[in-house]
Design a protein that fits this description.
The protein is mostly helical. It is built from ten helices and four strands.
Length: about 240
């Protein structure tokens, strides 16, 4: 069984006499910190290799405290660092092997970080529709509504990139405050305008015949996107007159 870093959620919570927990007990242990987590999400994380619970002879899942701790780390890295599951799994596996690894970045530099650090983050994963529903803990009708507003858009082959999971998670969190998907169209429109501005700047590099120049265009796009996100966050903070952690 895997070992995980200390400090995660769920030690001793709703444990059985043998120190093992049912999936329902794990759900209750995690919900204080992660109110949107669902049994479907836990099953999805298991299917993706993020956690490996024991199985009874009858096939029921049984989790120990280390499994719950690992799930807490996974959910925390999704929520706080917007990382795809593949990156989270590789990071936790490296930590368990005793390697000194730095938490990777993905497209959203935090306060004080340089934009080029985010640009060097991992490549975004792709996720199917059913996987997106399970990862976000939402129903088909909700995803269809978000797509109608352009908040989540599938790729040409019908799958989604890793950012779709991030968007879905944030839409769910905003919904807890009464902010409905239709209210978010203004944010989507602003994001499209910012993306258009970045694309306008790098378009000449993208059209260049030199492969190295086209590679530079990709790096420049990531750098400009990071700067645009930081500027947007700073403008929102300034408009509200608050400082966010």
């Amino acid at each position: 069984m895997r070992q995980t870093p200390s400090g995660g959620a769920g030690h001793g919570a709703a444990a059985t006499d043998r120190g093992l927990m049912s999936i329902g007990a794990v759900l209750n242990a995690l919900r204080d910190e992660f109110p949107d987590v669902t049994i479907s999400k836990i099953r999805f994380l298991e299917a993706e290799g993020l956690v490996e619970p024991r199985r009874t002879p009858a096939g029921y899942r049984k989790f120990d405290a280390r499994d719950v701790e690992r799930l807490g780390h996974v959910l925390r890295m999704q929520r706080d660092h917007y990382l795809p599951l593949k990156v989270i799994r590789e990071h936790l596996d490296a930590v368990e092997r005793g390697e000194a690894v730095r938490l990777p970045a993905l497209g959203r530099p935090r306060e004080g970080e340089e934009a080029h650090e985010a640009a060097e983050g991992p490549t975004a994963a792709r996720i199917g529709r059913a996987e997106l529903l399970a990862a976000a803990g939402i129903e088909e009708r909700e995803l269809a509504e978000w797509e109608s507003y352009g908040l989540v858009v599938p790729l040409a082959d019908g799958v989604y990139d890793a950012e779709a999971v991030t968007v879905a998670s944030l839409v769910v969190q905003l919904g807890r405050f009464g902010i409905e998907p239709r209210h978010l169209r203004v944010m989507k429109a602003a994001a499209d305008r910012e993306a258009g501005l970045v694309d306008q700047v790098v378009a000449p590099l993208k059209r260049h015949r030199n492969p190295q120049t086209r590679a530079l265009a990709e790096a420049r796009t990531k750098e400009l996107a990071g700067l645009a996100v930081r500027l947007h966050a700073a403008l929102v903070r300034s408009a509200l007159g608050v400082r966010l952690p």
